Amino acid sequence: MRLPVFLLVILTLCGCSRIAVLKEVNPVFKLSPEVSVDIDSHTKAFREATKYEKADPSRAGESYLASLQSLSRDLEKNPKSEATRRAYNFALERMFSLIRARNYQSWDAPMVFGRYQFTSKSVPRAGWRPNTFEFLPSDQVQVGGDYLQHMAVRDGLGASLVAIGRTEKTNYKATFSQARTYYGVSAVARFKGNVCEVSFHDPLDEETVTVGSHTYPLAADFTTPLAVLLTRERPEKLGLVRLLDPDKYAETARLSRLRPYDPDRIPLLLVHGLLDTPATWVPMVNALRADPLIRKKYQIWAYSYPSGYPYPYSAALLRQELDRIKTVYPNHKPIVYVGHSMGGMIGKLMITSTGDSVWEAYFHDKPARIDMSPREKKLMEDMFIFNARPDISRAIFICTPHRGADMAGGWIGRIGRKLVKVPQTMIQIGDALRQIVTLSEGGLAYETLPTSIDTLTPTNSFVRTVDSLPISPRIPYHSIMGDRGQAKAKLHPEEGSDGFVPYKSSHLPGAASELIIPSNHSGHQSPEGIAEVIRILKLHLARGSN
Q1: Strands annotated E in 218-265
Q2: Mind listing the pLDDT tens digit for each residue in 103-130?
Q3: Which residues in the chain are classed under CATH 3.40.50.1820?
Q4: 3-class SS letters over 148-192
Q5: Reduced to 3 DSSP states, what percent helix, strand and coil does the chain have, rounded to the nearest 5?
Q6: Which of 70, 304, 327, 471 reaches 20 to 30 Å from 55, CA-CA?
Q7: What Å distances lie between residue 271 and 18, 171, 173, CA to CA?
Q8: Burial class (CB in 10 A: 0-12, 13-18, 19+), 17
Q9: Is the pLDDT of residue 43 over 70?
Q10: Burial of 485 (0-12, 13-18, 19+ CB in 10 A)
Q11: What is each CA distance from 498 to 41, 373, 481, 501, 511, in whole angstroms?
Q12: C-alpha span between 457 and 464 (Å, rounded)
């Protein structure tokens, strides 16, 4: 039976695995050999406080705050003491652990722990309310999984927290945000007598924090929020079902931000490929956030879409999203586009102008002379007639089959076509197309109507016509392709392949750069592929595009 074989192949291509693992732990403050007696006394206080967390949380909180106050004084005297700073962070993190465990939700009034009050002083931005979040200390979990093999952290002062939205947002689609917040914040404590005031900081915006008369690096954990999001939401589950039945998940086609909008940062738009979701970009996002310059200059956006759609239709939906985001954020900087696999094919349609070339390849006549209902014609024009986007300034293509993939035209593709449901939008225009389209040999089979797999075949009319069109000379573009570590491919690139896309399909003449990396089709997750993207992004800044 070939169905299980087909599913096995496509799941293997997309690296089906445990992409993220999260395990809650009981953190223990560990002494380093050079610590002082004073730090040792705090360690003993931490152990005592832990014993009372369940039976007497007020007493536990008072003990943590007493240590935190003492450590704050010690830091003021000796701001370079790493042991004191680590103990300060640990005591503050335990306060947030205690609040989370006892389900204290109100920050509207100070929380009382014995002789101390614990309250919020300032927040990262207007409209940000601590009451709307559950705060998970990063040191309370261990992170793992195939997508999170490296921790992106910044050593410094502060409690690294994951701010988890208590409820889903009602307007998240209108504002291009996530349905539920999973965001890294850093908390710092200051004392006024026995009142501990906590300030929350965005580590993607702030590199340092001032406490007392000293300035410190702001502690940050950029990885754990990604792990919490992946393990709680499981977005990768949408990959296969959106391929097989795209219309059922039509509402998931949308552009979203991975951080609050910033008009001073360059949007970096990541677009996934076949059978995938934006979760596939997590290894790259993790590495990008670890780089101080990228963190400062770029903001990450992602486009998600059901990959069972023919990619010209997915591109038309993306153009609509880009038009819509321009109305919400009219002053955003020009976008750097990064596409993997089919996401790269969509990207090429963002930087190419078709005129009537694609239309006439199908209809062999001008649009005005085609007898079709206004709705059907509008849909076809959106897919076949478009101009290079003025809001895109650079493009990066990773393992992209610009001339299709042979596998899509073979037996795997034939089985795939039978499994993937034809989108309703294609069915609605099917009768009209059958009557007026003159198919070229090997073109789309409208008796079965097109799916994404049809539009990946090398003989597809759309693929062949777009390949013949020039890319806008205004927009520099770069190619990254894999050869699975086969040395002969570097000597003879025309023989290379990432296992799915051959070099002859991913190569683009006129590219500002081209790099062959020792990767399979998941080049966007490989260390070499990520390093090349970072290089190109810094080149973009050096060329004055910031």
Answers
A1: 220-221, 254-257
A2: 887 898 999 999 999 999 877 877 789 9
A3: 234-542
A4: CCCCCEECCECEEEEEEECCCCCCCCCCCCCCCCEEEEEEEEEEE
A5: 45, 20, 40
A6: 70
A7: 21, 23, 18
A8: exposed
A9: yes
A10: exposed
A11: 57, 43, 7, 6, 19
A12: 10
- E runs forming strands in 477-539: 477-482, 513-517
Q: Which of 18, 1, 91 is nearest to 49 (CA)?
A: 91
- 506 three-state secondary structure: helix
Q: Which two tokens stand for residue 242?
A: 């959106």
Whether 389 and 332 have beta carbons less than 8 Å apart is answered as: no
The pTM of this model reads: 0.90
Rounded Cα distance, 340 and 524, in Å = 7
Q: Pick the closest to residue 402 from 290, 304, 480 (CA basis).
A: 480
Would you mind telling me the total number of residues written for the chain in this entry? 546
The yes-or-no verdict on residue 165 having pLDDT over 50 is: yes
Q: In what order do the strands lie in the sheet with 111-113?
A: 111-113, 116-122, 195-201, 182-192, 159-165, 133-137
d(CA 49, CA 29): 12
Percent of the chain with pLDDT over 70: 84
Distance from C-alpha of 247 to C-alpha of 403, rounded to nearest angstrom? 26
Please tell me the predicted confidence (pLDDT) of residue 421.
65
Across 21-30, 173-182, 532-541, least confident range: 21-30
| Phi, psi (deg, nearest 5) at residue 295 | -60, -40
Asked whether the beta carbons of 307 and 419 are under 8 A apart, the reply is no
CATH of domain 234-542: 3.40.50.1820
Quote the CA–CA distance of 266 and 541 in Å, as a whole number. Answer: 10
How would you class 505 by CB atoms within 10 Å of its CB: exposed for 0-12, middle for 13-18, buried for 19 or more?
buried
State whether the Cα torsion 399-405-406-408 is positive or negative.
Answer: positive
Q: What percentage of the chain reaches a pLDDT higher than 90? A: 64
